[in-house]
């Protein structure tokens, strides 16, 4: 009897884990989107549409950094725009001094590491709502510095005329450059999320005390996660300032950090495609619908409320759940015995035996 039970349960768990199948599906969808994105300039898209696609990809890169922290570490940052702004101001300051774009990259990298380390050191002792408040405070500090240090940052007027590499001058070449950076950043975050480091980070998210009792240095893991996330955020800030050739204190504002949270929640926290979908929704509402609807923030708020009420896992997360549910129903309907979802191959007699704990023989 026990052999039959073990055999039946082995068949039910045969195949790749559900999480792996979901990730493979996301990777396949991302590959299809990548093909469509590569073909965009060849499909007759105007310069405005290509520029809008670049804006979406930059916002998605920045949202991915927030999604990495929130999805793996349970740390929702409300000040990530400050890290991107620090990187952008570093590049802007270097451009203002007459330095070439190569030096802009180095200065932006230095500012990114400095800001990320500041965020991490102040945040790794906190969690939950306190982490949210600390990141908000640091973001407001960077906003205040950008506004008050006018001799360095240009004050309210910001810094304009920030040049990028000459070989990136063409808008469509820059679009492909942004697309490549987005793909590499997403792949890097996915690899880290699926590494032992990512697994430990999720363990800390679920139970800090248990991980600490097992000998893990929780603070070191949190600081490391923040440095990784901040590096991607700084990269997005550099791409943004090269895209618009301009940076101002509004780039470090709280509203921009809130938009990042909205993007992540709309798309689905912890999902691979979530930041891209959320960024596409927010940027298109902000740049396209705002031409026809004056109160576009209200419209964005309504979309956010609808997603919270009817798709709490976000657009990508809920679509994945719906796909798995339909697939399970399809398998159950196609089975002549009305077998359970998941492809169980045991005959009815065996299922009854497992349920009743009796040997059908």
Please give a structural write-up.
The protein is mainly α. It has 16 helices and two strands. It has helices spanning 2-12, 18-39, 47-73, 80-96, 101-123, 128-148, 150-153, 171-193, 196-206, 208-213, 218-244, 254-267, 274-287, 296-310, 314-334, 348-356, and strands at residues 159-160, 246-247. A two-stranded antiparallel sheet has the order 1-2. Helix 4 runs antiparallel to helix 5 (101-123) and helix 12 packs across helix 13 (274-287).
Quick overview:
The protein is mainly alpha-helical and 361 residues long. The protein contains 16 helices and 2 strands. The protein has a two-stranded antiparallel ribbon.
Question: Kindly state the mean pLDDT as a whole number?
Answer: 84
Please count the beta strands (DSSP E, at least 2 residues each).
2
User: How would a crystallographer describe the biggest sheet?
Assistant: 2 strands, antiparallel
Give the helix level as a range of percent: over 70%
**Which structural class matches the secondary elements?**
mainly alpha
Low-confidence stretches: 1-16, 340-361
Q: What is the count of helical runs?
A: 16
- Global Rg: 24 Å
Strand content: under 5%
Distance between the termini: 8 Å
Strand order of the largest sheet: 1-2
Spatial shape: globular
Order of helices and strands: HHHHHHHEHHHHEHHHHH
Q: How does the SSE layout of this entry go?
A:
Elements: H1 2-12, H2 18-39, H3 47-73, H4 80-96, H5 101-123, H6 128-148, H7 150-153, E1 159-160, H8 171-193, H9 196-206, H10 208-213, H11 218-244, E2 246-247, H12 254-267, H13 274-287, H14 296-310, H15 314-334, H16 348-356
Antiparallel strand pairs: 1-2
């Amino acid at each position: 009897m026990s052999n039959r039970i073990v055999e039946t349960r082995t068949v039910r768990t045969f195949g790749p884990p559900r999480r792996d199948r979901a990730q493979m599906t996301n990777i396949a969808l991302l590959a299809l989107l990548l093909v469509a994105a590569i073909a965009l300039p060849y499909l007759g898209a105007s310069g405005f549409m290509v520029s809008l696609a670049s804006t979406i990809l930059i916002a998605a890169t920045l949202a991915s950094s927030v999604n990495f922290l929130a999805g793996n570490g349970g740390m929702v940052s409300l000040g990530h725009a400050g890290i991107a702004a620090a990187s952008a101001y570093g590049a802007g300051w270097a451009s203002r001094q007459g330095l070439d774009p190569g030096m802009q990259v180095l200065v932006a990298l230095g500012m990114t590491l400095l800001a990320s380390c500041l965020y991490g050191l102040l945040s790794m002792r906190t969690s939950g709502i306190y982490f949210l408040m600390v990141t908000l405070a640091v973001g407001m500090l960077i906003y205040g510095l950008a506004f008050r240090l006018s001799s360095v940052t240009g004050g309210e007027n910001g810094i304009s005329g920030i040049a990028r590499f000459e070989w990136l001058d063409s808008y469509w070449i820059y679009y492909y450059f942004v697309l490549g950076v987005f793909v590499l950043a997403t792949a890097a975050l996915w690899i880290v999320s699926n590494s032992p480091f990512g697994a430990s980070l999720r363990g800390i998210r679920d139970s800090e005390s248990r991980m600490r009792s097992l000998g893990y240095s929780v603070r070191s893991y949190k600081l490391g996660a923040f440095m990784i996330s901040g590096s991607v955020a700084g990269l997005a800030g550099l791409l943004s300032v090269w895209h618009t050739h301009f940076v101002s204190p509004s780039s470090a504002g709280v509203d921009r950090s809130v938009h990042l949270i909205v993007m992540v929640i709309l798309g689905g926290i912890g999902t691979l495609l979530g930041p891209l979908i959320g960024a596409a929704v927010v940027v298109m509402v902000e740049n396209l619908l705002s031409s026809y609807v004056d109160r576009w923030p209200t419209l964005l708020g309504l979309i956010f409320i609808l997603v919270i009420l009817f798709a709490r896992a976000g657009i990508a997360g809920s679509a994945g759940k719906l796909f798995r549910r339909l697939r399970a129903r399809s398998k159950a309907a196609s089975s002549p015995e009305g077998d359970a979802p998941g492809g169980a191959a045991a005959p009815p007699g065996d299922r009854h035996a497992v349920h009743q704990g009796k040997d059908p023989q």
